[in-house]
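Lab notebook, bench 4. We co-purified these components, and the gel suggests they stay together. Before we commit to crystallization screens, I want a quick structural picture of the whole thing.
Request: model the full complex, all chains together.
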Amino acid sequence: MPLSMYQASIPVFIRMMGNLSAILDKAAAYAEAKKIDPSVLINARLAPDMRPLSFQVQTASDMAKGCAARLAGIDAPSFPDTESTFPQLQERIAKTIAFLRTVTAEQVDGSEERDVVLKLRGQETRFKGQPYLLTFVLPNFYFHLTTAYAILRHNGLDIGKADFTGGRG
Amino acid sequence: MPLSMYQASIPVFIRMMGNLSAILDKAAAYAEAKKIDPSVLINARLAPDMRPLSFQVQTASDMAKGCAARLAGIDAPSFPDTESTFPQLQERIAKTIAFLRTVTAEQVDGSEERDVVLKLRGQETRFKGQPYLLTFVLPNFYFHLTTAYAILRHNGLDIGKADFTGGRG
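Here is the predicted assembly.
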């Protein structure tokens, strides 16, 4: 099957958000076992002027649902970024995956040249669908997923790269 | 232009390795300005059982050149992972990009079903070209790039996400 805009985006998002969910389950269990207030992990950062774990999860969700909607030419559900517990972050991931599952290959395929307009730091930025996916969404999506992983790893959670990639090292 | 195996891999690798090179230039300048021994940054880790900055750069390079070679059906250059200074890491990146530039769309396109065999933790693992790129290479490539960024950010380097993505926030 030739590589398509759908294959390079939606199943990747679903898979990686599922891996993130499993990592957050391990983080919640770790907090409970070690008597760590979960908010310590959820608010943890790698540098004082970097964003905390909750933001990394919310932004990975935004990248995935925003991309799916823009490539499909439909509206994405809006989530208010108020999650402050592990169950709430899991619900955010579940809602994101549920939305992604409604988006079909028929809607996304052929979106290489689709006009995408978004606001970045208050400035309107225009992309075509293919560079939007390859040079904006995927680097940002993986950046926030990896930062979430790194925050938890730095805070002692016993996970490995296979947790991140989903079982293939 | 329809999304192709080439477009989803080689130009992405070249672009992101270039961004990494610019980040390492800033790290070297930061070390000099702050009188930090560069090896402190090059050996820095986010957790005692995570790998240091040098490994992150080497592995990002390996992911990119290995993927390019396997999808194109050619041999990748072998680099011995001995880099221990910023100039050596920059040379590694430059050699990686130089190799990637020799790989053509004609060689890589149509590799969706190509058999890829690699050793992961001593075990032979088989992929088809498309899942190899989407579920193995890209998650790993971005994982190591982001971890390199996070190590430097955690150690005080003044960079932002635009340095990572190459100017689009």
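The first helix of chain A runs from residue 10 to 33. Worth comparing against the SEC data before the next meeting. Chain A touches chain B at residues 1-5, 7-8, 11-12, 15-16, 46-47, 50, 112, 120-121, 125, 130, 133-136, 138-140, 142-143, 146-147, 149-150, 153-154, 156, 161, 164-166, 168-169 (CB under 8 Å).
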